[in-house]
Design brief:
The chain is built from eleven helices and ten strands. The protein is an alpha+beta fold and 366 residues long. It has two domains: 266 residues, no CATH class; 56 residues. The relative contact order is 0.16.
């Protein structure tokens, strides 16, 4: 008797504890999946295809090629690939000669230059860009404008905010001049660095400036593209990725699809690469924005893993409680409800039979 009383005292506490754990796990699951979605949409550099597609029905894919430092890729190879991609688009029955654009690309490389401004001089990191680079990387302008492939003059540069303050003591610099490696350049604008945690971590040295790839090539004929970015129409699954794999001279480099990199399956697939992903065997040169993306991928994969594992206990608990309740309900049906129903049905049948007997015999007596 005492043991039964003790069990009754423990059961409510155990039930409350179990319920608390289940609720906490479900809340944490929701937080994990919410964090995954937040990370997936954190970096504008990974959302270029979505911005380009807009409200259109035709899907686009964003693909990036990272090239090894010892592999020379230049504008000739880019032009050849563009022509091959256009052929593939025609074969897919897309009108590449019309007004709609089914392809957008950009290329870049990194280096160092010696800067000379009004208030200072020194070495700065340079990112030499071509194509529609700032459609892929829409950095916030503090003044001026971007540089574009269509610019007639290639001696225009963009300064990061830190470089602007270091060399000129301000950011309203459009139209002013400065020297890179002794060559005069016109400042087109000033941009603010990305404010997200991943980009800050990956690009702690924010003393960057942006210049035309064509101009850097004139300054150094050994300049080679180390990152090629592409938005391509994807009328059928994997069309864009297959075009790049078949036609771009990737060599030992890496190709990745930015559009699908944060998908649930891709996130869980990264778990198996957690210990080896940091080792570079391809020799590909990764720019800071890709290192930032990989940082968010790592956190995203962890969130997906936790979000997948945490609901297991609540689901198992729910299944057990459902089974127990079903068993109790069955027992109650068999012991209380069904006998009572059967008794009422039997009583109703007896009453009906009695009335029928009385009606029949009453008529005979008449």
């Amino acid at each position: 008797m005492n043991q039964k009383k003790k069990k009754k005292k423990k059961n409510p506490l155990l039930r409350h504890l179990t319920l608390t754990v289940v609720v906490c796990m479900l809340l944490t699951t929701a937080i994990c999946f919410g964090a995954w979605q937040w990370l997936a949409n954190l970096l504008p550099s990974q959302q270029a295809a979505q911005r380009w597609q807009g409200d259109g029905d035709l899907p686009f894919s964003q693909i990036t090629c990272f090239l090894p430092a010892d592999q020379t890729i230049g504008l000739k190879e880019v032009s050849t690939f563009r022509n091959e991609a256009a052929k593939k688009l025609k074969e897919a029955s897309l009108d590449v000669q019309g007004d709609a654009r089914y392809m957008l690309d950009a290329w870049s490389t990194t280096g160092k230059v010696y800067t000379d401004g009004e208030h200072g001089r020194g070495e700065a990191s340079v990112i030499a860009v071509g194509g529609d680079y700032f459609d892929f990387h829409p950095l916030r302008l503090l003044s001026g404008d971007y540089i574009r492939q269509s610019d007639l003059m290639k001696d225009r540069i963009i300064l990061s905010e830190d470089v602007a303050w270091m060399l000129f003591g301000g950011t309203d610099l459009a139209g002013m001049t400065m020297k890179l490696n002794g060559i005069p350049f016109v400042i087109a604008g000033v941009v603010a660095p990305e404010s997200d945690f991943a980009s800050k971590k990956a690009n702690s040295d924010t003393l960057d400036l942006y210049m035309s790839y064509d101009m850097l090539l004139q300054m150094d004929e050994n300049t080679s593209i180390n990152c090629y970015e592409l938005i391509l129409a994807n009328p059928v699954k994997n069309f864009a990725m297959n075009v790049v794999r078949d036609k771009f001279p990737i060599g030992r480099g890496e190709i990745l699809c930015n559009t699908t990199r944060y998908d649930y399956g891709e996130m869980l697939g990264l778990i198996g690469k957690f210990g080896s992903r940091g080792s570079q065997i391809s020799g590909a040169v990764l720019p800071y924005w890709e290192n930032a993306a990989r940082m968010t991928e790592n956190w995203g994969s962890l969130c997906c893993l936790l979000g997948t594992l945490l609901p297991i206990f609540p689901l198992v608990t729910g299944a057990v409680l459902t089974g127990r309740n079903a068993k109790k309900l069955k027992g109650r049906l068999e012991e209380d409800i069904l006998p009572d129903v059967q008794e009422k049905v039997s009583e109703a049948i007896r009453v009906r039979q009695r009335r029928h007997w009385e009606r029949v015999h009453g008529e005979h007596e008449k």
